[in-house]
Amino acid sequence: MLEMRPDCERCGTDLPADEGGAFICSFECTFCADCADAMDERCPNCGGELLDRPARVGAALAKNPASTTRYFRG
């Protein structure tokens, strides 16, 4: 199950689990759309491809909440 990290690792932008606009690699490194574009859709941590993260909504989100651990190191 995806961890659904709450923020962009590069700029700290909030990325709610129930909204689009987040991009992840296969290790779940998470970035906003602007940062993913700036990095040519490549993860700076592993070099992997960044793809759209699916949203988690409704009962699925209530039963399996998103992570609250922030990864932005600012």
Task: Describe, in plain words, how this protein is organized in 3D.
- The chain has 74 residues and is an alpha+beta fold.
- The protein has one domain: Herpes Virus-1 (2-Layer Sandwich), CATH 3.30.40.
- The chain has helices at residues 33-38, 58-63; strands at residues 22-24, 30-32, 51-52.
- The chain has a three-stranded antiparallel β-sheet with strand order 2-1-3.
- The longest helix has 6 residues, at 33-38.
- The chain is globular, with a radius of gyration of 12 Å.
- The chain starts with 21 loop residues before the first strand and ends in an 11-residue tail after the last helix.
- The mean pLDDT is 96.
- This is DUF1272 domain-containing protein.
List keywords for this structure.
three-stranded antiparallel beta sheet, 74 residues, 2 helices, Herpes Virus-1, alpha+beta
Q: What's the level 1 CATH class?
A: Alpha Beta
Helix content: 10-25%
Structural class: alpha+beta
Number of domains: 1
Would you give the CATH topology?
Herpes Virus-1
Regions with little confidence, pLDDT below 50 for 5+ residues? none
The rounded distance between the terminal residues' Cα atoms is 27 Å
Backbone shape: globular
List the helices and strands and how they pair.
Blueprint: E1 22-24, E2 30-32, H1 33-38, E3 51-52, H2 58-63
Antiparallel strand pairs: 1-2, 1-3
